[in-house]
Design brief:
Layout lengths: L13 H30 L5 H12 L6 H18 L2 H14 L4 H13 L3 H14 L4 H40 L10 H4 L5 E2 L5 E9 L4 E9 L4 H8 L20 E7 L7 H9 L12 H6 L16 E4 L6 H5 L11 E6 L4 H6 L7
Parallel strand pairs: 2-6
Antiparallel strand pairs: 1-2, 2-3, 4-5, 4-6
Helix pairs in contact: 1-2, 2-3, 3-4, 3-5, 4-5, 5-6, 5-7, 6-7, 7-10
Length: about 375
């Protein structure tokens, strides 16, 4: 009987041929019935999607010779897998549907949607293009292709921003290394936010600088302090003769002639290079990039250039020579930049002065 014949065998008798025709007719009838039942399950909602997939799978397993019908079955199963979020299976089914029948437009659309959900943008774009070759005026495919192209453009833009952020940060870290500058933990971000130096086209560093009045812990901020600027130039502007007195300075002790500038020496640890890199990447597109093995680095903060420890001597106040440049001071052996340069302003005319210079005062 034809039931025991190999699938590739040719019937030898009229009876075998008749039996095969009957079997194929039964398979085709079962396939149509299972497909229609699967379609009904889809219409019944999510609770019946698994039943729909089962029907389409059983229909596919009938292995009828109608390529158009088989392609529809794979495309239908791809549709249900899409609805369930089984995007990889949906893509596989859609590709199989296209392989069987390259004119199946729904298969291109569903495959492209699955590829898009998997962030396989090149594959999604290819499926859209191939589908539009078959059906140039298909609006759904056109919209999907536009969506794919938009997302790809966004990703390309993002990747460019990340690349630029990494490049800028690498140059900035190298600039600190070349100047033998030590960067420590940013301790005044609550006052300044995330602030960073910038390197201009002439390879000159420009720093945001925080000035603190220790007596009242008030502050001033210099947005752009060129590393080659002397402190005297900025103090001249800050305490110009026509400037109003500080709101809290009732005795007018803080005048240009009376103020002195200090920094705290040996006050912190220099960050390892990877931490400096991460700090400069904060609030940039590159912040999501893990450029170092953090698990290993957390145990081994021993980068040669940036892992130096402070001197054993206790922290102390060092008076700034106003005729020195910012770079001159930042290069001092005991100065660790706390994120951005921080200096303390005191007045010789203030009662607070003796307490400060004697070392009996420390920042809160």
């Amino acid at each position: 009987m034809a039931l025991w014949m190999e699938a590739s065998s040719t019937p030898n008798t009229e009876q075998q041929e008749a039996d095969l025709d009957a079997i194929n007719a039964l398979r085709e009838s079962a396939t149509v019935e299972l497909k229609e039942k699967g379609n009904e399950y889809v219409k019944m909602g999510k609770k019946h999607y698994a039943d729909a997939i089962d029907c389409y799978t059983r229909a596919i397993n009938q292995k009828i010779s109608n390529n158009v019908e088989n392609s529809i079955l794979f495309a239908n199963r791809a549709h249900v897998n899409l609805l369930l979020g089984n995007y990889r299976r949906a893509l596989t089914d859609a590709e199989e549907a296209i392989k069987i029948n390259s004119a199946n437009i729904k298969a291109y659309y569903r495959g492209a949607k699955a590829a898009l959900a998997l962030d396989l943008l090149p594959e999604a774009g290819r499926l859209c293009r191939c589908g539009l070759e078959q059906s140039p005026f298909n609006e759904e495919l056109k919209k999907l292709e536009n969506h794919v192209n938009t997302k790809k453009a966004e990703i390309d833009k993002r990747e460019l921003q990340v690349s630029e952020a990494l490049s800028t940060t690498e140059v900035l870290v190298s600039a600190l290394e070349n100047r033998n500058l030590k960067l420590g933990r940013a301790i005044y971000k609550d006052l300044t936010g995330v602030r960073k130096p910038r390197l201009d086209k002439s390879n000159i560093l420009h720093w945001p600088v925080l000035l603190l009045y220790g007596e009242v812990m008030s502050s001033d901020f210099i947005e752009d302090f060129c590393e080659h600027d002397m402190f005297s130039a900025h103090l001249d502007m800050l305490f110009a003769g026509d400037s109003p007195p500080l709101p809290w300075d009732e005795n007018h002790a803080y005048t240009r002639e009376a103020v002195e500038l200090y920094y705290q020496s040996n006050a912190g640890h220099a960050l390892p290079k990877r931490k400096v890199f991460q700090y400069f990447l904060e609030d940039t597109a590159g912040a999501v990039v893990k450029s170092f093995d953090e698990q290993e680095a957390d145990d081994k903060d021993t980068d040669a250039d940036f892992a130096s420890k402070p001197d054993k001597a206790s922290s102390r106040w060092v008076k700034v020579n106003e005729r020195k440049t910012l770079l001159d001071v930042l290069k001092q052996r005991g100065y660790v930049i706390p994120g951005i340069p921080v200096f303390y302003l005191v007045s010789r005319r203030s009662s607070f002065y003796e307490e400060f210079v004697s070392g009996n005062w420390s920042p809160p």
